[in-house]
Amino acid sequence: MPTIDEYELEILSSYEKGKLKSIAAKSELAKLEAAARATAINSMTYKGYTASMVFDAEDKIVVGRVLEIDDIISFHGESVSEFEANFHAAIDDYLAAARELRLR
Hints:
Layout (H helix, E strand, L loop, with lengths): L5 H11 L9 H14 L2 E5 L2 E8 L4 E6 L7 E4 L2 H24 L1
Antiparallel strand pairs: 1-2, 2-3, 3-4
């Protein structure tokens, strides 16, 4: 899965700060947003775990789910920085719980 590069992060950050304006008609923009939601899946990796990154345009959040594990770990953030912090916290909590379960 592709990851967000520095250029894409800069664009996303500018969008979140309201610095970017659309020149597309609202109907065209709605079609583009729907297509992006249907096809855009990025990922982020931390401590060997990979999470999907999907932008929810309706709620204006980035939603994530840890991939390729049997458990369900999901989280979100209102910015890429918050998303990353919540992903790291989710993995750290998951690993701590796994250690605790092995000790029992």
